[in-house]
Structure formats: structure tokens, C-alpha cells
């Protein structure tokens, strides 16, 4: 990969990727890596909606063999977010590098290279190339369905299609914080949603649990999330964001359905958190070896009544804190036999992975829930958002 990082500067690689047709990014990547690094095979693997397999992007979706998102060289690269080098008997090596954009884990880029191309500079160059490719995939998805189709192992319901289009991604990484999030049942989710937005001074995070099932729940959540974004972008305080979203949902549905929502706004410089608990999502904090349920004043869900007033509460986070927000489908889940998943089981799930990245924590909580339920097809939507708080270096504040 030395050729990519030295003989051809990365900006020229980015320029070639930017000029490629949206559907031709993988073929362009193959040509670039073949010409400049001697790559014999190049495969782009994207994680499916359930984060269970990595599926190759091909002109005909579903024609390539999926790989585990947990095991094997590609799965380890995805899970650990570090390059994995796989030697071959013919003297070549296959290098698997994560494709991640600003903390959102998209998949893995695998390239079979001459052995000399797997030195540290070559691996680093391939990783930088994968990041550039990931950025272009995000842009290309506006104009082609190819990459979205590669992510699905089966057809999404209409409600799930709507929900995934609403999401900001499944991760966000900044010096002050790292976010990882997950939704299940991935292919039929209807009412659960998470959202976030950050600028130079603040981070806003919401977790929404829309009442009902299927398309009705998806419509309710779409109105709720749209109203919250509209109020946030108008520069309103957190309580007024909740109030205006409440009015919008009530105006649309007349109080017949409502959306339970947790709203959080972090001051990136101080770690002060403003919160509005409008319903059922719960918030937990791991500090050191202790997992604690952060008890907030329960206020009315959005859209239940007309002209509801909301009050903000304030707490603070410290560097090293981990926050996990979960919807009712997690903390209120029951197995087919009626056994509750329960707060203690949730605490154990959170306690089991202190060294895991937030993205893996969100995935593992849902995996434990699926084990408890006995199926990956959960009976209720489940949303998990995990946030690791690093805080801001005083020298950069």
C-alpha cells in the first residue's frame, strides 16, 4: 500500500473516488488499488442492519457469500476496529481494514496484496483509503440503492425502511465523546428511534419510543423526530423542543397515540447535562465499577395532551463515564414464558463489557436481550444508545 500513501498522495485518490459514478465506487477502488498497490482482489463488505453479517457489495445484490460480523479475519477487523492481516500460502496477504466514517461503522475493505504491501505504511495507507471510500459511500447513497441493498439479508418492512432512513447513523466519534447505537428487530422495527446532533459546544441526543406497531408507529415517530429536529434547529432550549414536538404530535394525532422520548443536551466544555424525561426510555450510568439508574422526573409523553409544559433537569458527567439509554423494549422486555428481562439483567449486560467500545456495548445488550427472548425477532422494538464521555481537554476548551 506504500504506493497509495507515497507515490500517489491521498487527495488524488479521493479526487478519483469523488469523480466515480455512485454505483461504481467498488470497481473504482479495485482499479486504484490494483494500479497503485498491486492488489489482486478487492472486496467491500458492508454490515447488515442486524450487525450479524458482512455482505459483499456486488452489481447483483445477494450474489456474494456473507461473512460473520463477529468471527474470522473480516469480522475481527469490524469488531475490534483494527486492521487484520491474513497471510496466504502463495506469498500474498489479505489485509482487512474497517470502513468507518466519524464513528459510524459501515463495514470492512479487504484487499489481497503482495506481502510487501502489508508493512505498517501499507496497512496505514489502506486504512486511510477505506475511510475515504466510506465518505464517498455516504454521498453515493443519495443517488443509488446499491449500498443499501447490500446491507440487507432480507426485505425490510415499510415501517423499518422509514425508521432506518430517519437515523443519523449508528455511531459518532468526537474527542469529547463516542456514541454507539443499535435497533432491533432490525428488519421489522416500527416505533423506536434515536437521534443526535453536535456542534462546537453542545451535543443533543434523543431516544424515542413511538406507541403502537408497524407503519402506524413509524408515522408517529417520523412526526416526532421531525418536530424535535425542527425545534432544535430553531435554536430552542431543550424544554421548548419537547413542548413544540408535543404540540406537533398532538395536532396530528389528537392524543390517540403518543411518543415516549428522552431528551439530553450535553455541554461539551463542562459535562453539564440538561435532560427532559418525557416517557419511558431509561438512562443508566456506569462510573467506575458501579452501574446506576439515573432517575429523572417522569413527565408526560409527547402528544398525549395539548399544551403540555416540560421542565429540564440537570446532572453532570465526568471523563470516563458511560451512559446507556434504552427503550421500553429493553428494560420492559419479557420472554415468551413471561420472564422479565429486568433491570438486574440489564445491569449485568452493562457490567459485562466495560472495555468494549460503545458500538459493541449497544450490540451486546441487544444480543443478550435476544438470548433472553429466545429469538432475534423480538416481540417489541428495542433501542440502545451507549455514550462514552471523555470530556474536553482544558487546553483546547
What does this structure look like?
The chain has 397 residues and is an alpha+beta fold. 35% of the residues lie in helices and 27% in strands. It has twelve helices and 17 strands. The protein has helices at residues 2-7, 10-19, 25-37, 72-80, 120-140, 146-150, 158-166, 214-233, 238-253, 328-331, 342-351, 358-373; strands spanning 41-47, 53-56, 67-68, 84-87, 92-101, 104-114, 171-174, 177-184, 192-198, 202-210, 259-267, 272-278, 282-287, 290-293, 313-316, 322-326, 382-389. A six-stranded antiparallel sheet has the order 3-2-1-6-5-4, sandwiched between helices. It has a six-stranded antiparallel sheet with strand order 7-8-17-16-13-14. Strands 9-10-11-12-15 form a five-stranded antiparallel sheet. A hairpin with a 3-residue loop joins strand 9 (192-198) and strand 10. Helix 2 (10-19) runs parallel beside helix 5, helix 7 (158-166) packs parallel to helix 8 (214-233) and helix 8 runs antiparallel to helix 9 (238-253). The longest helix is centred in the N-terminal third of the chain and has 21 residues, at 120-140. The radius of gyration is 22 Å and the shape is globular.
Amino acid at each position: 500500500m506504500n504506493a497509495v500513501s507515497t507515490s500517489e498522495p491521498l487527495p488524488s485518490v479521493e479526487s478519483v473516488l469523488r469523480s466515480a459514478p455512485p454505483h461504481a465506487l467498488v470497481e473504482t477502488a479495485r482499479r486504484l488499488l490494483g494500479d497503485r498497490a498491486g492488489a489482486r482482489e478487492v472486496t467491500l463488505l458492508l454490515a447488515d442492519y442486524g450487525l450479524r453479517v458482512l455482505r459483499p457489495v456486488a452489481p447483483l445484490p445477494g450474489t456474494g457469500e456473507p461473512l460473520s460480523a463477529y468471527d474470522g479475519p473480516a469480522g475481527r477487523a469490524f469488531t475490534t476496529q483494527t486492521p487484520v492481516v491474513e497471510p496466504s500460502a502463495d506469498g500474498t496477504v489479505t489485509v482487512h481494514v474497517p470502513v468507518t466514517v466519524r464513528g459510524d461503522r459501515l463495514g470492512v475493505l479487504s484487499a489481497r496484496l503482495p506481502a510487501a504491501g502489508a508493512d505498517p505504511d501499507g496497512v496505514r495507507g489502506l486504512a486511510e483509503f477505506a475511510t475515504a471510500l466510506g465518505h464517498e459511500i455516504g454521498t453515493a447513497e443519495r443517488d443509488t440503492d446499491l449500498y443499501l441493498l447490500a446491507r440487507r439479508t432480507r426485505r425490510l418492512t415499510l415501517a423499518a425502511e422509514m425508521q432506518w432512513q430517519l437515523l443519523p447513523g449508528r455511531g459518532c466519534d468526537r474527542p469529547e465523546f463516542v456514541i454507539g447505537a443499535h435497533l432491533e428487530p432490525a428488519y421489522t422495527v416500527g416505533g423506536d428511534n434515536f437521534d443526535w446532533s453536535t456542534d462546537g459546544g453542545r451535543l443533543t441526543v434523543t431516544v424515542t419510543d413511538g406507541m403502537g406497531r408497524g407503519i402506524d408507529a413509524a408515522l408517529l415517530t417520523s412526526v416526532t423526530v421531525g418536530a424535535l429536529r425542527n425545534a432544535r434547529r430553531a435554536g430552542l432550549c431543550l424544554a421548548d423542543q419537547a413542548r413544540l414536538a408535543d404540540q406537533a404530535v398532538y395536532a396530528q394525532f389528537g392524543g390517540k397515540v403518543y411518543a415516549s422520548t428522552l431528551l439530553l443536551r450535553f455541554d461539551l466544555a463542562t459535562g453539564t447535562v440538561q435532560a427532559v424525561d418525557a416517557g419511558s426510555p431509561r438512562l443508566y450510568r456506569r462510573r467506575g465499577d458501579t452501574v446506576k439508574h439515573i432517575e429523572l422526573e417522569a413527565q408526560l409523553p409527547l402528544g398525549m395532551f395539548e399544551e403540555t409544559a416540560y421542565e429540564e433537569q440537570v446532572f453532570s458527567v465526568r471523563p470516563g463515564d458511560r451512559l446507556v439509554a434504552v427503550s421500553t423494549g429493553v428494560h420492559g422486555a419479557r420472554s415468551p414464558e413471561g420472564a422479565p428481562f429486568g433491570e438486574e439483567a440489564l445491569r449485568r449486560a452493562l457490567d459485562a463489557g466495560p472495555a468494549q467500545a460503545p458500538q459493541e456495548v449497544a450490540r451486546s445488550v441487544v444480543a443478550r436481550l435476544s438470548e433472553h427472548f429466545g429469538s432475534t425477532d423480538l416481540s417489541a422494538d428495542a433501542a440502545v444508545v451507549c455514550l462514552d464521555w471523555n470530556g474536553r481537554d482544558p487546553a483546547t476548551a
